[in-house]
Amino acid sequence: MMTEEANINYVQEPITSAEPEIRKIIEEVLQLEKEKIYMKIPKNINEEIITVIKRVIK
Amino acid sequence: MKLISIQLCNFRQFYGETPVIKLAGGEQKNITVIHGNNGAGKTTLLNAFTWVLYEKLNPAFAYPKYLVNKRAVNEVILGKEVEYWVELYFEHDNKQYKIKRKGTAYLDKTKNIQHSSRIDFFMQFAGDNGKWYIPTQQPVDIIQTILPESLHDYFFFDGEHIDHILRYGEKNKIAEDTKELIGVKVLERAIEHLKKARQNLTKELKDIGDIETKQLLKEQSKKEAERDKLTQNQEKITQELTQLEATKKEIANRLLQLSGASELQKLKQNLEAQETKIRKNLVEEGNNLKNYLSSKAYIVFLLELQPIINNILSHSRANNQLSSGIKPQFIHQLLQQRRCICGLELNEGSEHYHQVKTLMYQTGMANTEEAIIRLESQMEYIQRQLPDFWQKLDTYQANISKWRIEISHIETELDEVTEKLRKFPNEDIQQLQNSLDGLEIEIKKLTLEQGVNKQKIESFNQEIEAINKKINKHQMQEEKQAVAQRRIKATEEAIERLIEVRGRLERQFRVSLEKKVQEIFASISFTPYFPRIRENYELELIENTSGIAMTVAASTGENQILSLSFIGAIMDRVRAWSQQKNTLMGPDTSTFPIVMDSPFGSLDQIYRRQVAKSIPQLANQLIVLASKTQWRGEVATEMANFIGKEYVLVYNSSKPDCQEDAIDLYGKFYPLVKTSPNQFEYTEILEVETTNYDY
Fold first, then answer.
1. Are strands B539-543 and B682-687 parallel, antiparallel or unpaired?
2. ipTM higher than threshold 0.90
3. Quick one: angle between helices A4-16 and B427-524, nearest 10?
4. Residue contact B582–A8, C-beta within 8 A
5. Closest CA to B571 of B506, B503, B513
6. Which residues of chain B are within 8 Å of residue A49 when distances are taken between CB atoms?
7. Across residues B339-351, what is the average pLDDT?
8. Which residues in chain B have their CB less than 8 angstroms from residue A26's CB?
9. Model confidence, pTM
10. Which CATH number describes the domain made up of B2-147+587-687?
């Protein structure tokens, strides 16, 4: 059985091993989703995600 | 979220402001016990927590519409509003929060209690300097991120009904809630919304359109090659022409040298010189005419407008729309002197005074008047210019036709001279002239070709320029397209990685969650059953005694234990994971309170002891609302070391012959039920005196 830390590192590995740009997109999108998780239909989420992608990749 | 204290006012059984109920939250002593008999207000207290946090009430909470205390509302005059509220202090992420939810109610004319629909909600938080501030974010949003409403059933619950989370029909909810708690829902939504973003980005890429830069570049180089070929050809023609001219000159010179032909040849050269000069004049005069027309011809068309302008001006003058030409200073002077130039007295208020003063308004347009005067004089000037214009035009045209005639004469003469040379009775001369004729034809042909080439080169240049512009535009679009493609690619990669994370999270977390549920369940239950969490997060109890895993039809008691084990395991796992810098998933909290009404439900003695033993370790903070029968020996014993605060709900019964009751705590009797000193039933809260608090 893996240790707790190894466990979490393994789960998050696809995010932590991504290129900086991809990682930034993922982290910001997850933060946006977390903030709106209690809404049945998250307001403006699609626009905000597009903005994140466009800001990170120019 | 760590709960600090709660206070109620006129909320159901609680009349007036209750004392502040401080809640134990120490490392060791994290339990607050609130004793109360049936009807004393334990369920009300449980609901006070969910009402103040989420404006939610337990489905089992009777008459949810009547929240105000009856005594409080009956004590005021009809129609006067009475406030009822709950205030809660809690701590999260080293920050203290204070929230308060408040409603009002009154007695209508028929003495029925009416609740106003408006419920106010306030939030403040304490800054590092100890001062209280109003948050900039929506209070509801803040609470949702600390402890989401959808999960409140797992933290504020009625122990007697805790097994409902496992009942058929609610299994889907528990699966969804678990996903939310461990962050799978966040991942799922992120994946879904990133897919939508990819769709939108693809559409944007399509809108940029097809780009044919390569084809354009090909076309451009083709045209450039053709142009260069023509330019080369042009140079060749120029060289040939120079050579031909030289030969022509040479022959002409030889003609001059031959006796007999020299006179004719001289005449011819003279004529040619004259022709060149007149042709030059003709071109110059033609240019002069063009320039003159473009600078002066407007005069002819302008005159048509003159009667129209005159008409407008005279109409405006007749209607007094233009100024009279009098200066304002003059009128002002007249009014000051109180005498008109005609000698008439101008007394203020008189009709004459008024008339003169009216003139003042017409003097205000000095600039307009000036412009009109200038316009009129210009028109006159232009009109005078017209005869000159026509005369000059005639002169230009006369010159041009005069020179044309002269050229025609010279050409005729030249033809005659040339003809004479051709037929000259000397063969040499004849031959030379024939050569000259041949040269002339060749020169004419080449000159014509040169002109055609020049036009072609110009048009190629224009086309190349146009293609160039297109290429630049397309290159810009290409850049846009490249960015759009990179964005789509990045989005796709983000989706793939998140799908992988979700897969890993579900596998890893489900396994560790299942292990923990099994561990807790085994520590409480004496059955050989073990819980299993299926891939869709449904929780079930399995028995494996025969070697084949089979679902057990669990009893209410077993389901209660299973539910508790599940809640405990969830808290344990989320806590463990969020302490590992796992900032990407799950709610922003690692501290969970449990407020539990009737915690031991229908459990028998052994289970009660086991649950009592386990619970303090499951939650970071526990608030137990228990009746005297629920708080029996084994429970009190198991929990004793963890109790930090203890209260008794004293129910004042309005029934005159009610059976009074009391509880013995630490050698002291506290009333649980007593007769009300007035006709109302209400509950008081007494703090139990214990020792060694650690909160």
1. unpaired
2. yes
3. 160
4. yes
5. B513
6. 193-194, 196-197
7. 85
8. 190, 494, 497-498
9. 0.62
10. 3.40.50.300
